[in-house]
Amino acid sequence: MKSGNIVILTGAGISAESGLQTFRAADGLWEGHKVEDVATPEAFARDPALVHQFYDARRKRAGEVEPNEAHRALARLEANWNGDFLLVTQNVDALHERAGSQNLLHMHGELNSGWCLACGERFAWEGDMVPGNSCPNCHASGMVRPDIVWFGEMPYEMERIEAALRKCDLFVSIGTSGAVYPAAGFVQTAKYRGARTLEINLDPSMGSLFFDAHRHGPASVEVPKWVAEMLTA
Ligand code: OAD
Q1: What is the pLDDT of residue 27?
Q2: Residue 149 CA: which ligand 1 atom is closest?
Q3: For residue 31, what pLDDT is reported?
Q4: What is the distance between the alpha carbons of residues 187 and 27, in angstroms, rounded to a whole number?
Q5: Is the pLDDT assigned to residue 1 strictly greater than 70?
Q6: Alpha helix locations (H) across the chain?
Q7: Ligand 1 center–CA 100 separation, angstroms
Q8: Residue 157 in contact with ligand 1 by CB distance below 6 A
Q9: CA 146, 104, 119 angle in degrees (round to 5)?
Q10: Which among 96, 122, 123, 214 is most buried, taking Cβ atoms within 10 Å?
Q11: In this model, does residue 224 exceed pLDDT 80?
Q12: 132 CA to middle of ligand 1, Å?
């Protein structure tokens, strides 16, 4: 089957084997940092230096790693697919685009993007963001924040995502714990529309019961296997 409309949602698990920490593992990012200290607008207002430090480290690390077989397999699937194909990622790294994915939405923002709170402009950003940063557009000082969707903020591109979910035939969730809404609810929107639903994850996610089918194992193994089946069926 190489046709039909597909929506794929990915989370931190797909980048784990590239060497990026997930959030909720025993050694994950949210074990080492409190969400309310580094991933809320209130935290940024209170202590921008700490928030910048956290995302500067993430940006640096994300630049040191490479896409893995799971990222590459999804790019291959998209390149050979005849129906609509949308990849929605909660990840803020750039591993999907570096692997060749095209129709991709970063619903939680991107590490390599900055957002100026003075002029509202968003722009590409490399390197550290430090508190005294300067906006490349309006040149205001210290007003650029990471272009990351923090807790309490609205994820990006929700209209396009909801529209794609409402007309998809297959929804696949890869490497996400299903702990954070609205992404965790996509499976139910797709199911309501009548789509088949598949979960590929190391272990059952919180929303596991909503999926018709499950493949448990490392993404770098399970995703290429599934993609090969999709492209030969
Ligand atoms: P989590 O850390 O919550 O979940 C990662 C999931 O990936 C877990 O279910 C793991 O079992 C699974 N996993 C780990 N290694 C894997 C591997 N090699 N192959 C397959 N699966 C693997 O990360 P997310 O679900 O992405 O939001 O977290 C969702 C959101 O919560 C993030 O986007 C972030 C976080 O707070 C914001 O920062 C706004």
Answers
A1: 83
A2: 39
A3: 79
A4: 27
A5: no
A6: 13-16, 29-32, 35-38, 41-46, 48-64, 69-79, 95-99, 158-166, 186-193, 219-232
A7: 22
A8: no
A9: 35
A10: 96
A11: yes
A12: 32
